[in-house]
Structures are given as C-alpha cells and as structure tokens.
Amino acid sequence: MVSRVIPVDPFDLVIFGGTGDLARRKILPALFRRFSDGQMPEDARIIGAARTKQTAAAWTKWVHEALKEFLPKEELGKTLVKAFLERLDYLAIDAVGEAGWPELKAKMRDDVTQAFYFSVAPSLFGALAERLHSNGIARADARIVVEKPFGRDLASAQALNATLAEHFAETQIYRIDHYLGKETVQNLMAIRFGNVLFEPLWNAQYVDHVQITVAEEVGVGGRGAYYDKSGAMRDMVQNHLMQLLCLTAMEPPNRFEPNAVRDEKLKVIRALDPVASTDIVRGQYVGKSSYLDDVEDPASRTESYIAMKLHVANWRWNGTPFYLRTGKCLKARGSEIVVHFKETPHSIFEEDAGNKANVLSIRLQPNEGIDLRVTIKEPGPGGMRLVDVPLDMSFADALGHDASHVPDAYERLIMDVIRGDQTLFMRGDEVEAAWAWTDPIIEGWKARNDKPVDYETGSTGPEEALMLMHRDGRRWRDLA
Ligand code: NAP
C-alpha cells in the first residue's frame, strides 16, 4: 500500500541549536525523510541557527554528514540529497546577545509559515522568545517548538510557561513529547475510537490491569551529569509514561482535535490518586555497569529505575490498577502498553483446558505493532484443548511498508507543527498537572532521604518490583 502524503504549505523553519546533537540525530534526518517523501514543498527553507560562526556551506556539509550517519545509504539518492541541501541556510546567532538577530529578520519571508524550533537548553527559551519579538521577527501566527525537559518541578514549569506566554499564545506553543509522535501511540487512539470492538470493554469491568513499560538497555552514558539531577521519575515518568497512561485511560474525546484530546488527558492526570510509598520501587543499577560509576556523586540517591502502581480514581477505572515501570541497564530494550483483560466470567471448559485471558499489547519499540492474544482450540483430535494465539498486526507487514520506513516520531511531529496541528503536543496545563502530581512523590523521597534499591545490570529490574506485582497475584510481562 502506498502511503498518502499530503504536502504542507511553504515554510521557514529556524532551528535554534542547529549545530547540536538533537538537530543532527533527529530533526534534520526527519526533515530529509519528509522531503524525500514529497511532503515538503519546493520553496520550504530550513535555517540552522547557533553560536558557532560558520558559513551556510559549512553547516550544509555538516548536515550531509549527519544524514549519512543516521539514515540508511539506500535512502540517500544523490539528486535527492542535493535538492534537500539546497533548502538549507545558516546564521550565527547568540540567544543571549544581539549578534545575528537583524540578519535573521532580513532572511524571514512574510508569506510563508514561520516556525522556530528551540533545540537548545531550556534556560535559553526565554531569551529566544524575547528576541524573536523585540527584533520584530515572529509574527502572531508563528509557531515555536520546545523540547524536553519542560521544567524540573511545578514551580519551574510554571515559570517556563509564564516566560513563553509573555511573547506567544498557547496556540503557538508546541511542547514536544516524541512518544506521542510514534505511529503505535496514534494507533492506540485509532484502535480505541475507530472500532466498536474495544471501547465497550475498556473499563474496570473487563480490564484486570494495565502495564506500561519503557525499558532501556543502555545506562546513563555521557548524560550522567544531567541525569543525576533528574532521575527516572523526572526524565521518563512525568512526561513519556504519563502521556501513555493518559492516552490509554482517557475518555473518548468528542473529536480528534487538539483541545478535545488534551482536555481528556488532563482529566486523567487530575484523577490520579496519590501513590502510597509502598506502591513505588526505586532502583539503581549495579554490577557490570554501575550507576554510581556513571555519575559524579559517589553517594547519589537518584533512581535509574522506577516501578509504580497507580489508580485512576474515576468510574471507568475504579479497581483497575495501572502498573508503570521504566529503567536503564535492563535486560532488553522495549516500550509497550499492555492491557490485560479479565478471564471469562465462567468457563465452560475443563479447568486445565488452557483457557487464557485476552491480552492486547501495543508495542512502541522495537518493531512497532499491535498484538491481541485470543483463545482458540488447538487443532487436531484429543478433546477441547485450548491455546492462546496472537492476532498480530505488525504495521510494516500488514500495510506492506518496509519496517525501516516506519516514520520516526519527529517526522510526524515537525510536519504537524508546520500544519498547525497541536493534537500530539502537550498543553501548558497538562505539563503543570503532571508536575503537580509528581512533585509530592519526589519531595517525599527527599524528606525521607530515600535510598534506591540495587538491581543487576542486564536484569529485569529490582526484586522489589517483582514483588509489587506478585503481592497482587500478577506478574510483569517478560522483557523480550
Ligand atoms: P547540544 O548538543 O548541547 O546542543 C546545544 C545547541 O544549543 C548547540 O547547537 C549550541 O550551539 C546551541 N547554543 C548554546 N548556547 C547558545 C546560545 N547562547 N545562542 C545560540 N545557540 C546556542 O544539546 P542537544 O542534545 O541538541 O539538546 C537540545 C535540546 O533538546 C535540549 O533542551 C535537550 O534537553 C533537548 N533534548 C535533546 C535530546 C537528545 O537526544 N539530544 C533528546 C530530547 C530532548 P553552539 O554549539 O554552536 O554554540
């Protein structure tokens, strides 16, 4: 099946932080892919902006190297790459100084969509927003894209929101959580709200529990200094896992439209019960790699793993726990949302026939896809022997796409910015509500000087996290 590509309007996209790691690894390769797919119009322009003084030609060469590093060779046709690179320009600009701003103003066109990607440290967001205005560059319909982390607690997130609000309306601000740009996450909404099959069962009467996992094989690596001030709760739970939880638990929005979807997500965060300390496990990896060797503070109490049991206190979910876990240096990399349905109310088969409860798993990575396990009869004679088999919907197979061409989240999200669609971006109040829920938990750890438990590098996580499930008579899904 050939994918339908709807071209976007002509645009000027300025990437502040255009010489940085995120630009190199994600933003520029994503833009190239959209270009090669025909979504970018002829007169689209991408302007890199950073402090480094260099010519447009030098930056273009650097971008070319980045494409070669992060995209498969077969995608990089010579003519295509040349045509893409011709759309690039560069300006040396200082976010906190005056250099480069008049030149940027002179470059911007009046009659195309304006977007400014703030791919710089959050401490520079305010300076960028202010200068875009004081230099008369950003129009009233310009869009700004801001990266994570969006604050480190409620107070800093509120301050960041207030700073941006001085110069930009909420409708102009695109807060990225790249998990929302993943095909499977959007498919979760398509599955729930585009079929009649699931929604009637999507509640406490039929769902036993939900597991949300984001597991990484790698440690904190070169990010030790940043990570140690953050930890898994701030780095992963407050944003990515919370967003996945919201999309899974939310009520049907009346339309697939930015504020309708975001209103429903916000209600989920506000419905979360405070978590008992006995329902949270914090861990630090030890052994072959050790967290304490990867960070500066030899006595750090920052968690590299977290598992927790949550309750969404509303009619739909009363009695259905949501178990979340995320961690580094685990046995395998994998992200998924798994909905464990209840067993049939009464089994007509013999007790040992093999009847299993249905499980719907939504895999975000690797191999994005959806898998529903259903019970059928084992073929052949020998009575009614039951077996559960997967109804596997691997997108790549089902839709005839090459798996390596499943669009990266950034491709979708950047084009949404250009199209002016905020549905898959976090609204300011959502981010604040998530911090308002997270803050007391983190403050509690601090007040108690809580020490994370150890878990072996390459394991499935701390023993205590297994117990969190076992004591409820449940178990975590295996990390593949
Ligand atoms: P980075 O590699 O350190 O790059 C920072 C960029 O900011 C560079 O292009 C740098 O340009 C520019 N910059 C620094 N000071 C500046 C100033 N005063 N004026 C103008 N430009 C300035 O950082 P990054 O990893 O790309 O991260 C960028 C943002 O994305 C951060 O907010 C980060 O938290 C977020 N993020 C990154 C990742 C990732 O995978 N890298 C993932 C999620 C979120 P010069 O070097 O030329 O000065």
From TrEMBL:
Binding of substrate, residues: 178, 182, 216, 235, 328
GO cellular component: cytosol
Pathway: Carbohydrate degradation; pentose phosphate pathway; D-ribulose 5-phosphate from D-glucose 6-phosphate (oxidative stage): step 1/3
Catalytic function, reaction form: D-glucose 6-phosphate + NADP(+) = 6-phospho-D-glucono-1,5-lactone + NADPH + H(+)
Active-site residue numbers: 240 (proton acceptor)
Pfam families: G6PD_C (PF02781), G6PD_N (PF00479)
Residues covered by the Glucose-6-phosphate dehydrogenase NAD-binding domain: 14-187
Alphabetical UniProt keywords: Carbohydrate metabolism, Glucose metabolism, NADP, Oxidoreductase
Gene3D superfamilies the record matches: Dihydrodipicolinate Reductase, domain 2, NAD(P)-binding Rossmann-like Domain
Superkingdom of the organism of origin: Bacteria
UniProt entry tagged with the keyword Oxidoreductase: yes
EC number: 1.1.1.49
Single Gene Ontology MF annotation: NADP binding
Function: Catalyzes the oxidation of glucose 6-phosphate to 6-phosphogluconolactone.
Protein name: Glucose-6-phosphate 1-dehydrogenase
Organism annotation: Gymnodinialimonas phycosphaerae
Lineage start: Bacteria, Pseudomonadati, Pseudomonadota, Alphaproteobacteria, Rhodobacterales
